[in-house]
């Protein structure tokens, strides 16, 4: 902290600067709290509405607490009208399936790109980099036509297949594997380990932080994805959370806000709770696209 | 490498064998990814190129070559022009809001010690939440007669606004929700950039008499955050350009086309009306924008090195 060298020349007294600091701090918090209200308002309103009776929802006055607790009825109605747990289970199945295949495919490929010399390596890497720029909406239509011809629409497989290859995972793990010491790999080779064993038993465990971060990134992305499931799934029993929410909102024609917000609460809860528990991992995982 | 240095006499056959193993293992390891790359990206792209030159309709039997007809049609189609314009307007609102909002919050949060993690959680919450579910809540928040936002407006003496059913406000309202969703994401990226700025630079600035918060921001923080800002700017542009979820759930392109965006129109043409050939051409228009954004990003990342 630099002290003002000319305290007598101006009117800057300790009390004065303390006051300035206090005002500055108050201003900072005022902005942050105002922003926080904007961020939290939908969540608060969702929770409040989900425990309000219809009469209070449709009344003009704004209250943050219901006079009559109606949560049990709203949640029961939501559970009866839509298979919400099924939607959540679908989300778990799809996210797990996608993540497992993504890792099984990306890890060996990333290792090969990082540490092995094989023909076509540079071409493959260029294709991976190009793949990074192509969002799923681009190959969606040909994939849809192919799945329709194969009779695979309305299956878990159809929901997962476009995401089995994550070029982003390959890119990320390659960066990570490149810094893995060659000496250890060579020592393992001298010990008679096969390349297969080296990938899964030596290199992969060392990449645990990157894998965990990618797992979070992948899970959040696919739990919340609407575009692709909307295209290939019309059977409500297979719907992942966002599509399930959409079906439910349509069926309810948007009028039963108590039940709608109850459903929204249930479908948002798993990720939000996971986020609150593993805060750092979530933030690192989701924003790691930014640390390339 | 170490082997070669240790025993130069023995390398001949050993190295060759090593190379052969590496080649086979490398190809084997890359094979699943390569097959998937072909099946889920490259082949679909090739099919898309062919489709875009036809008038194929999914489920139909015959199709004709139309060459660039689909692209000409798209350029002349008032609906597509409007949806492209809407998308760009959406981007033009979300980008400054999301980038400068994220920067402001990050700068303010960065110097907090005790409250920092609390603010981080609050601002990041929308990023993890299921947007479709929250869109339903937003719809209710913005409801002309039942929503609390209009309740507050009325209490303040303003006339209620039908945010989502008014052509003039619908797109901007969706853009605000878009900002709400990605503000926390951008904040975290900026926080990472701020942490990387060495503290002694600020101390040096203090000694040089540059002690005001705004001075320090303009002389140190802003220039050093350049690469981060560029990155955030581009990712925000790409995210905003891909807007779909809120449109599909909250407005379905309405009122009177005021919120029709490019991706939503591609979805309608391709998967609702099954104008497959036409939708393929539109997909390339979409891809062209994404590629331009990505190219800008690649070049700006090159620049990052010179800082």
SSE inventory with pairings:
The complex is a heterodimer of chains A (292) and B (307).
Chain A: H1 14-50, H2 54-57, H3 71-81, H4 84-115, H5 121-131, H6 140-149, H7 156-160, H8 167-178, H9 182-190, H10 195-206, H11 208-223, H12 227-232, H13 241-251, H14 257-277, H15 279-287
Chain B: H1 2-6, H2 11-52, H3 69-76, H4 78-110, H5 116-128, H6 131-141, H7 148-155, H8 167-195, H9 199-207, H10 213-224, H11 226-241, H12 245-251, H13 262-272, H14 276-304
Number of strands of chain A: 0
Mean pLDDT of chain B: 86
- Please tally the helical runs of chain B, counting DSSP H or I stretches of 4 or more residues: 14
CATH C-level class of the largest domain in chain B: Mainly Alpha
Radius of gyration of chain A: 26 Å
CATH H-level superfamily of the largest domain in chain B: MetI-like
| Main sheet specs of chain B | none
Shape of chain A: flat
End-to-end distance of chain A:
35 Å
CATH topology of the largest domain in chain B: MetI-like fold
Number of individual domains of chain B: 2
Secondary structure: number of strands of chain B: 0
The appropriate CATH architecture of the largest domain in chain B is Orthogonal Bundle
């Amino acid at each position: 902290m630099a002290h003002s060298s000319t305290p007598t020349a101006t009117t800057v007294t300790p009390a004065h600067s303390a006051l300035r600091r206090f005002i500055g701090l108050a201003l900072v918090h005022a902005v942050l709290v105002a922003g926080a209200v904007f961020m939290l308002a939908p969540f608060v309103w969702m929770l409040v509405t989900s425990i309000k009776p219809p009469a209070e929802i449709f009344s003009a006055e704004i209250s943050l607490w219901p006079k009559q607790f109606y949560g049990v009825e709203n949640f029961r109605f939501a559970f009866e009208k839509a298979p919400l747990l099924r939607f959540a289970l679908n989300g778990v199945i799809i996210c797990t399936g996608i993540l497992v295949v993504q890792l099984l495919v990306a890890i060996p490929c990333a290792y090969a790109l990082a540490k092995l010399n094989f023909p076509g390596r540079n071409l493959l890497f260029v294709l991976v980099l190009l793949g990074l720029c192509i969002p799923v909406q681009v190959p969606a239509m040909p994939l849809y036509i192919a799945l329709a011809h194969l009779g695979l629409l309305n299956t878990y497989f159809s929901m997962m297949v476009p995401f089995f290859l994550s070029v982003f995972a390959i890119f990320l793990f390659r960066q990570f594997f490149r810094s893995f010491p060659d000496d250890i790999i060579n020592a393992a080779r001298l010990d008679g380990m096969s390349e297969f064993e080296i990938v899964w038993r030596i290199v992969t465990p060392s990449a645990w932080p990157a894998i965990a971060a990618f797992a979070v990134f992948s899970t959040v992305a696919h739990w919340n994805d609407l575009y692709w499931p909307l295209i290939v799934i019309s059977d409500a029993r297979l719907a992942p959370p966002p599509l399930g929410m959409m079906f439910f909102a349509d069926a309810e024609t948007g009028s039963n806000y108590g039940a709608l917000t109850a459903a929204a609460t249930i479908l948002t809860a798993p990720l939000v709770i996971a986020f609150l528990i593993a805060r750092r991992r979530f933030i690192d995982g989701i924003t790691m696209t930014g640390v390339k | 490498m170490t082997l070669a240095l240790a025993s130069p006499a023995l390398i001949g056959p050993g190295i060759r064998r090593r190379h052969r193993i590496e080649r086979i293992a490398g190809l084997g390891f890359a094979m699943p990814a390569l097959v998937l790359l072909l099946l889920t990206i490259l082949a679909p792209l090739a099919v898309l190129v062919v489709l875009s030159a036809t008038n194929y309709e999914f489920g139909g039997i015959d199709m004709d070559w139309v060459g660039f007809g689909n692209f000409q049609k798209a350029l002349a189609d008032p609906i597509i022009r409007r949806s492209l314009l809407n998308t760009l307007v959406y981007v033009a609102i979300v980008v400054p809001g999301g980038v400068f909002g994220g920067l402001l919050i990050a700068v303010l949060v960065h110097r907090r010690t005790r409250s920092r993690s609390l603010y981080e959680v609050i601002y990041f919450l929308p990023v993890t939440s299921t947007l479709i579910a929250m869109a339903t809540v937003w719809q209710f928040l913005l409801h002309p007669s039942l929503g609390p936002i209009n309740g507050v407006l009325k209490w303040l003496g303003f006339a209620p606004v039908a945010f989502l059913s008014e052509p003039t406000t619908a797109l901007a309202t969706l853009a605000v929700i878009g900002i709400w969703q990605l503000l926390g994401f951008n904040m975290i990226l900026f926080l990472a950039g701020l942490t990387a700025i060495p503290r002694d630079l600020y101390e040096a600035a203090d000694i040089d008499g540059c002690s005001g918060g705004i001075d320090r921001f303009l002389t140190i923080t802003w220039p050093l955050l350049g690469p981060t800002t560029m990155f955030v700017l581009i990712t925000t542009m790409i995210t905003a350009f891909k807007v779909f979820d809120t449109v599909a759930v909250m407005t379905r392109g309405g009122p009177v086309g005021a919120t029709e965006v490019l991706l939503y129109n591609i979805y309608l043409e391709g998967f609702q009306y099954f104008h497959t050939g036409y939708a393929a051409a539109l997909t390339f228009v979409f891809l062209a924008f994404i590629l331009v954004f990505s190219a800008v990003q690649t070049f700006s990342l090159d620049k990052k090195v010179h800082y």
